[in-house]
């Protein structure tokens, strides 16, 4: 049974908490609509910066890039900066069914209003998160769902590949000045047994893939496999710079950003579109050697534990 409460967390009061016997979700609405905690048996798979605890925007105050379970909208590098959505104050509520909702104000830069809903399963780590993008402007707009979840660093990222890929190496690596390398070669990234894996710090952190599998996973050094499932639409336009469906940003041993990307949504004034991600935390032993992960076992675990619920 899921219990709901209001708690203080990461320097913020009145955060929403959803929890069952083993899993705990804590949502922050004071500085963007974020997941601050996604824990299984006391271990948070998300990464927060302690120096940002309790941070709130104030006139003339230096801005931050908030950590945690972030969501956003794209197109990246094209959309106008939108601090009202990114770290502004949101409203927060829990309905009678135990579904938590965080709602932004209308963003003056883009004309978007965002609603994020979160529903925790009664007996497992399964968290269903849905972002709804509303066009509150007076003009037609085109946006896409962009998840930007910061997980604890030092782990192994796993993305199932679905050949043929449009990318010669199966992925794109962004270098300085956003130059896209379509033939990267990095000793800490490889495609093996039908999976792309990032098992240590690559030369540059941002990687993009065009996988149609609809899931990715990240194994933390704390023996937690963080799995995301999400829909992919092969016949629709993806307006990410390289039309990626998923991105991984692997920064040293500090952070790994897990980024499902949705298709372009063309919205007339008053229209809205939603995109749902399903999350799980599954126990799995971190290997003694990062480059020796049993990928077949990972795929089998994901299939057995998440497919029937998706």
Describe this structure in words.
- With 310 residues, this protein is mainly beta.
- 5% of the residues lie in helices and 43% in strands.
- It has two helices and 23 strands.
- It has helices spanning 83-86, 295-306, and strands at residues 3-9, 12-19, 23-28, 34-40, 43-44, 69-74, 91-94, 100-103, 112-120, 127-135, 141-152, 156-160, 172-174, 180-181, 189-192, 195-198, 206-209, 215-219, 224-229, 246-251, 255-260, 265-267, 272-283.
- The protein has a ten-stranded antiparallel sheet.
- Strand 18 (215-219) and strand 19 (224-229) form a beta hairpin.
- The chain is globular, with a radius of gyration of 19 Å.
- The relative contact order is 0.16.
Mean pLDDT: 97
What percentage of residues falls in helices of 4 or more residues?
under 10%
Low-confidence spans: pLDDT under 50, at least 5 residues?
none
Strand arrangement across the biggest beta sheet: 7-8-9-10-23-19-18-12-16-15
Q: Summarize the helix and strand pattern as letters.
A: EEEEEEHEEEEEEEEEEEEEEEEEH
The separation of the N and C termini measures 20 Å
Shape: globular
* Class of secondary structure makeup: mainly beta
The radius of gyration computed from the alpha-carbon positions, rounded to a whole number of angstroms, is 19 Å
Strand count, sense and closure of the main sheet? 10 strands, antiparallel
Specify the number of helices. 2
The number of strands is: 23
- Portion in beta strands: 35-45%
